[in-house]
Amino acid sequence: MLEIRQVVKTYGKNAPAVDHVSLSLTQGVVGLIGHNGAGKTSLMQMIATLTRPSSGQILFQGVDIVKNPNAIRQRLGYLPQDFGVYANLSALEFLQYFAALKGVRNPARLLQLLEMLNLHEHAHKPASTFSGGMRRRLGIAQALINDPDILIVDEPTAGLDPEERLRFRNLLAELGFKKLVIMSTHIVSDVASIASELAIMRQGKLIAHQSPDVFLQQARGQIWSAQVAHSDFEALSARVNVLQAQRSGSSVNLRIAHPHSPCADAALAEPSLEEALMAQRYASLEQAA
């Protein structure tokens, strides 16, 4: 469905924000993971045809959208990280405005979206009265107006409370059965239970693209749990990668990423996805050094 070939994006004379990234994506939820400044937003903006690559190709169903952006715009939904609403418009009026912009003339579609996103009871209330989670849901509604094949959401759970985060994740998981959903985040738990693929970016480069199960399998045998005395903790943490440290009386409970047993009485532990990605990061940094 979507193929990214050696895409580069450079701003001025700075180092590339996106550095020769190649990806091939089909239906499902793809978690685009990386720290702030890793190049996630720049890549998504190029897929959404908001900016052009400095070089490389982006193909949607075989058509180069850099040369022909209209080939994807009618089949695309986009929710940017900083999504603003018109506070004086009601939820329904807001969707009517975007429907007009996108050429959608089916009023029933707007009511369907409001119900899907649990906003139907608030259809005639001004957006200025909405919580952060309700505004994000309204943002998803506008992104879905044209029933797109590709949905791009940039840090969609930022600022949401735990209940809204869960609601949002469940919605994206459901959409991923029929569409390609590209979701950027630096919070691994946001995609751990819903992503069919993870694409990891660091300093503009794509460093890994695999299923969550593959990351977990690669980390097995490298994650350890241990309990050490306070007096031993500092020396141990100086030579191994401590993922988590929790004080417990006179001891410290640790989770450690290491290729072999890091200390006496350490036990192998089943990795979480976040720990698996951290182990992968540490391993790549050590190889680079």
Automatic annotation (TrEMBL):
Keywords: ATP-binding, Cell membrane, Membrane, Nucleotide-binding, Transport
Entry-linked Pfam families: ABC_tran
Classification via CDD domains: ABC_drug_resistance_like
Protein origin, superkingdom: Bacteria
Limits of the ABC transporter domain: 2-228
GO molecular function: ATP binding; ATP hydrolysis activity
PROSITE patterns for this protein: ABC_TRANSPORTER_1, ABC_TRANSPORTER_2
Family to which this protein belongs: Belongs to the ABC transporter superfamily.
Stated name of the protein: ABC transporter ATP-binding protein
Native species: Undibacterium parvum
Phylogenetic lineage: Bacteria, Pseudomonadati, Pseudomonadota, Betaproteobacteria, Burkholderiales
